[in-house]
Amino acid sequence: MHFISDQLEDYIENHSENEPELLQRLSRETHQKILQPRMLSGHYQGRVLSMISKLVNPKYILEIGTYTGYSALCMAEGLQKNGELHTIDSNEELVDFQRRYFDESFFGNLIHQHLGNALDIIPQLKTNFDLVFIDADKENYSNYFHLIIDKLNPGGLILSDNVLWSGKVLESLKKDDIATKAIVAYNKLLKDDDRIETILLPIRDGLTISRKK
Ligand SMILES: C[S@@+](CC[C@H](N)C(=O)[O-])C[C@H]1O[C@@H](n2cnc3c(N)ncnc32)[C@H](O)[C@@H]1O
Question: Single GO molecular-function term (predicted)?
Protein backbone atom coordinates (compact mmCIF):
# COMPACT_ATOMS: atom_id res chain seq x y z
CA MET A 1 0.00 0.00 0.00
CA HIS A 2 1.20 3.51 -0.80
CA PHE A 3 0.35 6.03 1.91
CA ILE A 4 1.27 8.98 -0.27
CA SER A 5 0.61 9.75 -3.93
CA ASP A 6 2.80 8.28 -6.68
CA GLN A 7 3.71 11.84 -7.66
CA LEU A 8 5.00 12.67 -4.19
CA GLU A 9 6.83 9.33 -4.03
CA ASP A 10 8.61 10.19 -7.28
CA TYR A 11 9.48 13.63 -5.93
CA ILE A 12 10.88 12.11 -2.72
CA GLU A 13 12.98 9.59 -4.66
CA ASN A 14 14.21 12.24 -7.08
CA HIS A 15 15.39 14.41 -4.19
CA SER A 16 17.14 11.61 -2.33
CA GLU A 17 20.39 9.81 -3.11
CA ASN A 18 20.47 7.91 -6.40
CA GLU A 19 20.19 4.13 -6.29
CA PRO A 20 23.67 2.60 -6.80
CA GLU A 21 24.12 0.81 -10.13
CA LEU A 22 24.67 -2.63 -8.54
CA LEU A 23 21.41 -2.33 -6.61
CA GLN A 24 19.56 -1.24 -9.78
CA ARG A 25 20.76 -4.45 -11.42
CA LEU A 26 19.89 -6.57 -8.39
CA SER A 27 16.39 -5.08 -8.30
CA ARG A 28 15.90 -5.63 -12.04
CA GLU A 29 17.02 -9.28 -11.87
CA THR A 30 14.84 -9.89 -8.81
CA HIS A 31 11.80 -8.53 -10.68
CA GLN A 32 12.62 -10.67 -13.73
CA LYS A 33 13.40 -13.99 -12.05
CA ILE A 34 12.30 -14.21 -8.40
CA LEU A 35 8.84 -14.66 -6.91
CA GLN A 36 7.30 -11.84 -4.87
CA PRO A 37 9.68 -9.01 -5.90
CA ARG A 38 7.57 -6.60 -3.84
CA MET A 39 9.45 -7.91 -0.82
CA LEU A 40 12.62 -6.10 -1.89
CA SER A 41 13.21 -2.83 0.02
CA GLY A 42 13.75 -0.75 -3.13
CA HIS A 43 15.39 2.57 -3.94
CA TYR A 44 13.98 4.93 -1.29
CA GLN A 45 13.81 2.58 1.70
CA GLY A 46 17.21 1.23 0.71
CA ARG A 47 18.72 4.70 0.86
CA VAL A 48 17.07 5.21 4.28
CA LEU A 49 18.69 1.95 5.52
CA SER A 50 22.03 3.02 4.09
CA MET A 51 21.83 6.45 5.76
CA ILE A 52 20.86 4.98 9.15
CA SER A 53 23.71 2.48 8.93
CA LYS A 54 26.20 5.21 8.04
CA LEU A 55 25.01 7.27 11.03
CA VAL A 56 25.37 4.27 13.39
CA ASN A 57 28.62 3.05 11.75
CA PRO A 58 28.05 -0.42 13.22
CA LYS A 59 30.67 -3.09 13.74
CA TYR A 60 28.08 -5.88 13.78
CA ILE A 61 24.80 -5.94 11.84
CA LEU A 62 22.14 -8.66 11.96
CA GLU A 63 19.46 -8.98 9.29
CA ILE A 64 16.49 -11.33 9.66
CA GLY A 65 15.12 -11.91 6.14
CA THR A 66 17.73 -11.54 3.37
CA TYR A 67 15.52 -12.26 0.33
CA THR A 68 17.76 -11.30 -2.66
CA GLY A 69 20.20 -9.27 -0.58
CA TYR A 70 19.11 -5.72 -1.41
CA SER A 71 18.72 -4.40 2.15
CA ALA A 72 21.85 -6.26 3.33
CA LEU A 73 23.91 -4.41 0.72
CA CYS A 74 22.34 -1.07 1.71
CA MET A 75 23.17 -1.56 5.39
CA ALA A 76 26.66 -2.88 4.61
CA GLU A 77 27.49 0.59 3.25
CA GLY A 78 27.70 1.84 6.86
CA LEU A 79 29.75 -1.05 8.30
CA GLN A 80 33.10 -0.43 9.94
CA LYS A 81 36.03 -1.63 7.80
CA ASN A 82 36.52 -4.76 9.91
CA GLY A 83 32.79 -5.19 10.60
CA GLU A 84 30.46 -8.12 9.92
CA LEU A 85 26.94 -8.33 8.57
CA HIS A 86 25.08 -11.55 9.40
CA THR A 87 21.97 -12.16 7.35
CA ILE A 88 19.50 -15.02 7.77
CA ASP A 89 17.02 -16.51 5.32
CA SER A 90 15.21 -19.85 5.21
CA ASN A 91 14.91 -19.98 1.40
CA GLU A 92 17.70 -22.16 0.02
CA GLU A 93 16.95 -21.12 -3.58
CA LEU A 94 18.10 -17.55 -2.91
CA VAL A 95 21.57 -18.30 -1.52
CA ASP A 96 23.53 -18.28 -4.80
CA PHE A 97 21.70 -15.20 -6.09
CA GLN A 98 22.55 -13.30 -2.88
CA ARG A 99 26.20 -14.42 -2.93
CA ARG A 100 26.70 -13.32 -6.54
CA TYR A 101 25.65 -9.76 -5.72
CA PHE A 102 27.45 -9.68 -2.35
CA ASP A 103 30.67 -10.69 -4.10
CA GLU A 104 30.23 -7.99 -6.74
CA SER A 105 30.00 -5.36 -4.00
CA PHE A 106 32.77 -3.86 -1.84
CA PHE A 107 31.43 -5.80 1.15
CA GLY A 108 31.41 -9.42 -0.03
CA ASN A 109 33.93 -10.64 2.55
CA LEU A 110 32.08 -8.86 5.38
CA ILE A 111 28.69 -10.47 4.66
CA HIS A 112 27.91 -13.84 6.27
CA GLN A 113 24.87 -15.75 5.02
CA HIS A 114 22.96 -18.08 7.33
CA LEU A 115 20.49 -20.52 5.81
CA GLY A 116 17.63 -21.73 7.99
CA ASN A 117 14.92 -20.67 10.37
CA ALA A 118 15.94 -17.46 12.14
CA LEU A 119 14.38 -18.75 15.36
CA ASP A 120 17.00 -21.54 15.39
CA ILE A 121 19.93 -19.53 14.08
CA ILE A 122 19.78 -16.38 16.26
CA PRO A 123 20.47 -18.25 19.55
CA GLN A 124 23.60 -19.77 17.94
CA LEU A 125 25.12 -16.39 17.02
CA LYS A 126 27.98 -15.52 19.37
CA THR A 127 28.26 -11.78 18.60
CA ASN A 128 26.35 -8.81 19.99
CA PHE A 129 24.94 -6.36 17.44
CA ASP A 130 24.84 -2.58 16.88
CA LEU A 131 22.15 -2.66 14.20
CA VAL A 132 19.41 -5.24 13.60
CA PHE A 133 16.89 -5.27 10.74
CA ILE A 134 13.79 -7.43 11.25
CA ASP A 135 12.14 -8.16 7.89
CA ALA A 136 11.03 -11.82 7.86
CA ASP A 137 7.75 -13.59 8.77
CA LYS A 138 5.50 -11.14 10.62
CA GLU A 139 4.15 -13.84 12.95
CA ASN A 140 7.56 -14.10 14.60
CA TYR A 141 8.48 -10.41 14.98
CA SER A 142 7.87 -10.48 18.76
CA ASN A 143 9.85 -13.73 19.07
CA TYR A 144 12.74 -12.14 17.15
CA PHE A 145 12.65 -9.15 19.47
CA HIS A 146 12.90 -11.36 22.56
CA LEU A 147 15.77 -13.32 21.00
CA ILE A 148 17.84 -10.28 20.05
CA ILE A 149 17.23 -7.69 22.78
CA ASP A 150 19.97 -9.16 25.01
CA LYS A 151 22.32 -9.39 22.01
CA LEU A 152 21.87 -5.69 21.19
CA ASN A 153 24.58 -3.32 22.44
CA PRO A 154 23.50 -0.22 24.43
CA GLY A 155 22.75 2.54 21.91
CA GLY A 156 22.15 -0.13 19.25
CA LEU A 157 19.15 0.04 16.92
CA ILE A 158 16.47 -2.42 15.88
CA LEU A 159 14.78 -1.50 12.58
CA SER A 160 11.47 -3.27 11.95
CA ASP A 161 9.85 -3.28 8.50
CA ASN A 162 6.16 -3.43 7.48
CA VAL A 163 4.89 -2.24 10.85
CA LEU A 164 1.87 -0.49 9.24
CA TRP A 165 1.07 -3.63 7.25
CA SER A 166 -0.70 -1.80 4.41
CA GLY A 167 -2.77 0.12 6.98
CA LYS A 168 -4.37 -3.07 8.32
CA VAL A 169 -3.18 -2.18 11.83
CA LEU A 170 -6.17 0.23 11.95
CA GLU A 171 -8.81 -2.25 10.81
CA SER A 172 -10.84 -4.51 13.07
CA LEU A 173 -8.98 -7.79 13.36
CA LYS A 174 -10.25 -10.76 11.38
CA LYS A 175 -10.01 -14.01 13.33
CA ASP A 176 -7.73 -15.80 10.85
CA ASP A 177 -5.48 -12.82 10.04
CA ILE A 178 -2.51 -13.98 12.09
CA ALA A 179 -0.01 -11.60 10.47
CA THR A 180 -1.96 -8.42 11.28
CA LYS A 181 -2.58 -9.63 14.82
CA ALA A 182 1.14 -10.26 15.22
CA ILE A 183 2.13 -6.83 13.90
CA VAL A 184 -0.38 -5.05 16.16
CA ALA A 185 0.98 -6.96 19.19
CA TYR A 186 4.56 -6.25 18.09
CA ASN A 187 3.99 -2.50 17.77
CA LYS A 188 2.53 -2.47 21.30
CA LEU A 189 5.45 -4.52 22.60
CA LEU A 190 7.96 -2.00 21.21
CA LYS A 191 6.02 0.95 22.60
CA ASP A 192 5.74 -0.60 26.10
CA ASP A 193 9.24 -2.05 26.56
CA ASP A 194 11.30 0.19 28.87
CA ARG A 195 14.63 -1.10 27.59
CA ILE A 196 14.18 0.74 24.29
CA GLU A 197 12.92 4.05 22.91
CA THR A 198 10.87 3.72 19.76
CA ILE A 199 9.80 5.90 16.88
CA LEU A 200 7.50 4.61 14.12
CA LEU A 201 8.12 6.26 10.75
CA PRO A 202 5.58 6.23 7.88
CA ILE A 203 8.26 5.13 5.40
CA ARG A 204 6.94 2.79 2.70
CA ASP A 205 4.95 0.12 4.64
CA GLY A 206 6.07 1.53 8.02
CA LEU A 207 9.56 1.35 9.50
CA THR A 208 10.18 1.48 13.24
CA ILE A 209 13.45 2.54 14.81
CA SER A 210 13.97 1.26 18.36
CA ARG A 211 17.09 2.32 20.26
CA LYS A 212 18.37 0.34 23.24
CA LYS A 213 18.92 2.59 26.29
C1 LIG B 1 10.40 -9.30 3.01
S2 LIG B 1 11.59 -10.50 2.55
C3 LIG B 1 13.10 -9.69 3.01
C4 LIG B 1 13.42 -8.53 2.09
C5 LIG B 1 14.82 -7.97 2.24
N6 LIG B 1 15.12 -7.66 3.62
C7 LIG B 1 14.91 -6.70 1.43
O8 LIG B 1 14.55 -5.64 1.96
O9 LIG B 1 15.31 -6.74 0.27
C10 LIG B 1 11.38 -11.72 3.79
C11 LIG B 1 12.36 -12.90 3.73
O12 LIG B 1 12.25 -13.59 4.99
C13 LIG B 1 12.47 -14.96 4.77
N14 LIG B 1 11.89 -15.69 5.93
C15 LIG B 1 10.59 -15.85 6.23
N16 LIG B 1 10.45 -16.54 7.38
C17 LIG B 1 11.71 -16.81 7.81
C18 LIG B 1 12.24 -17.49 8.95
N19 LIG B 1 11.44 -18.02 9.89
N20 LIG B 1 13.58 -17.57 9.08
C21 LIG B 1 14.40 -17.03 8.14
N22 LIG B 1 13.96 -16.36 7.06
C23 LIG B 1 12.64 -16.26 6.88
C24 LIG B 1 11.80 -15.24 3.44
O25 LIG B 1 12.38 -16.39 2.83
C26 LIG B 1 12.06 -13.94 2.66
O27 LIG B 1 13.17 -14.08 1.78
Answer: S-adenosylmethionine-dependent methyltransferase activity
